[in-house]
Amino acid sequence: MTIEKSNSKEEKLEEYIFTHPELESIRGKPHEVLRLIEEYAPKIKLSMLIGPQKGKVVIDEMKKCDPKLMIELGCYVGYSAILFASELPDDAKYYSFEINEKFAAIATKLIKLAGLQDKVTIFVGKACDKLPEFRDWLSGCDEKFKPVDFIFIDHWKDMYVPDLRVLETLGLIAPGTIVAADNILYPGVPDYAKYVKGSPRYRKEYNLAHTNKNGGKYLGRWNVLYESDTIEVESQELYIMLIQLNKFIKDVKSAYLAVSDEYSNPSTLSIDDKNEIDQDFNYKIQQMYKKLNYLETYESKRQEVSNVQDNPSRGWFTSVFADDEVLLYHETITIHRKQVLRFLMETLNYVNKTFDSIQQKRLTRERQLNLLNFQNIQEDEIDIDDIPPQDDLDIINNNGNYFDEEQVSPNQLQELEYENQEFLNLKINQVKQVEKVQQSILDIINIQNDLSFKLQDQGNQIGNLMDTHSEIEMEVSLGNKTLNKSKKSNKKAANMLITMAIVFGCFILFVDYISF
Length: 516
What we know:
Elements: H1 9-18, H2 23-26, H3 30-40, H4 51-65, E1 69-73, H5 79-85, E2 93-98, H6 101-113, E3 120-124, H7 127-139, E4 150-153, H8 160-169, E5 178-181, H9 184-188, H10 190-197, H11 200-209, H12 230-257, H13 271-310, H14 316-321, H15 325-372, E6 395-396, E7 402-403, H16 410-515
Parallel strand pairs: 1-2, 1-4, 2-3, 4-5
Antiparallel strand pairs: 6-7
Helix pairs in contact: 4-5, 12-13, 12-15, 13-15, 15-16
């Protein structure tokens, strides 16, 4: 099947699917349409798709609330609309907003191919222009209005907060509405994360200080409380990717460590294939380290904001009667998330070390084979064609004259053998020296391997010591926090007793004064 050259990647995807031999067999089957999109997207580097892994996380959240009304900001080519709408109940509706007419046309065709045209409706235009029309259309003539059950945001990152404020202003977001947004931490939308994590007071000040790009009338609602689980979702996705990488290492290990040469089985991995695996694996590992770094940075900033919100300036009387349950809750959440991030870091290090060990093993085997391959030494310098046939060889006597082999007597042969015996002994000694060098090289390689293994063991021991030190440091920190809490509670109790004593003392004096 040949695909004609198109102007864009999206058009190439459209042509690939609608010229595919299986077109009629996949009609009306959403998961088969998704399979073709996922199959062809990497070939044309179509990266603006949520993908099956993140999609499963969103679907799991959808199943918790069983939405009847779901909207999406950013339809693109319809992948997410097909993925999510296929999981909705039959009586549910899915509305998608897409600013690009060309993308919306492609998405409409794919949605119709999947058989979801009765469940999915696409609004073409800017979300800030179409959302008010959608709200009016949704409310109907009797002005009865029901907020949206589920919202999925995956369009321009700088429009996340402005369009969210539009949704708040229009009343499309209400208690119980679930809002899912893609790429919050990586590549990152810090304004959105800070907005939904902020307190009502912070959002009120933010809305007053920042005019909405969509218009000043869309101020937003500061009294909407969001319960965010961004860390949990991103951590789960990262852990799934680590499991898949670890499984890939186990599956490819035997073929990866197999010796590759020109006489090996063509089905085995070549050296170029192994080098390509090394490059791809290292790239993915670096991306995971970068994403984990984003998660740690995000959690640190979230903790700072939470500390500021949970520890405002309080007076003496307020500090005496204050409740620590909220503080304890946030501290427990912080400890839990730190443990999750630490577990992810240890898992990532384990996967990286596992692949690094088999990589070093492969490189060591290749070096050993190259060193032991003595038969290839100077073989290219010898030209067999330059050696004359034995029949044409002439023997030279001591006087330098040529004579034929037939003229050589047995005495002369014995004399020649005696004269060349010293040369033969010299060559035998050289061969023995080569064997000794070979054995020495093997000994050096074995010593090198032993040293590398010992260094690796020492590195693991150092890592275990560092982990133990971190655990002890964390336990000491928790102990200090517990001690500080005890001091605070004792101080509060003491202050309460002092306050009660003063109050009772004043009361007794007042009673005595009245009595006398």
